[in-house]
Write a structure and sequence with these properties.
It is a single chain. The chain has three helices and four strands, in the order E-E-E-E-H-H-H. Helix 1 packs across helix 2.
Length: 155
């Protein structure tokens, strides 16, 4: 069984590709208003120029998706950083350190899952002790803050 022929075909004319409607034999017409790009708001056609003069505002007013590992800045949060919220400009070495941290966390989570299956009652007790003890949480947050301070010095 063969599919029906297509209505449109693409031809090259003068080193340009044109779409021809096979029913009319004319080039396919474009609408007068082009479609907006994905993510564009209102009358915007595409992304505007980026202002790189200052880092984005941090804290509650900052957009959640505006900063991260893949962008030019990293905004810390209060639950893991004592000096939060602060915006850290990302360079190659900072991005590499955070990428390695991602892999380390993935391996640690995989090991914790395996240990939870092997020693399930002890794993629950360990998780409860770590999350319930404010002294341990404070020590972990202080260590993370010192580690993040290294990003500020490297940038």
């Amino acid at each position: 069984m063969r599919p029906p022929p297509t209505r449109y075909k693409v031809v090259e004319r003068g080193r340009r590709l044109e779409v021809i409607d096979t029913l009319t034999g004319e080039p396919a017409s474009r609408s007068s208003a082009s479609l907006p790009l994905a993510g564009a708001r209102g009358g915007e056609v595409g992304p505007g120029p980026r202002d790189l003069s200052a880092p984005p505002a941090s804290g509650m007013g900052a957009q959640a998706g505006s900063a991260g590992l893949d962008s030019g800045t990293f905004v810390t949060r209060r639950w893991y950083d004592d000096k939060a919220p602060r915006t850290i400009r990302m360079n190659y070495s900072n991005r590499a350190r955070l990428t390695n941290l991602r892999y380390g966390i993935a391996v640690a989570v995989a090991l914790l899952v395996v240990l939870a299956f092997l020693f399930w009652p002890f794993a629950l007790i360990l998780v409860f002790l770590v999350t319930a003890n404010p002294k341990i949480r404070t020590q972990i947050r202080t260590a993370i803050t010192r580690w993040i301070d290294g990003f500020d010095q490297a940038a």
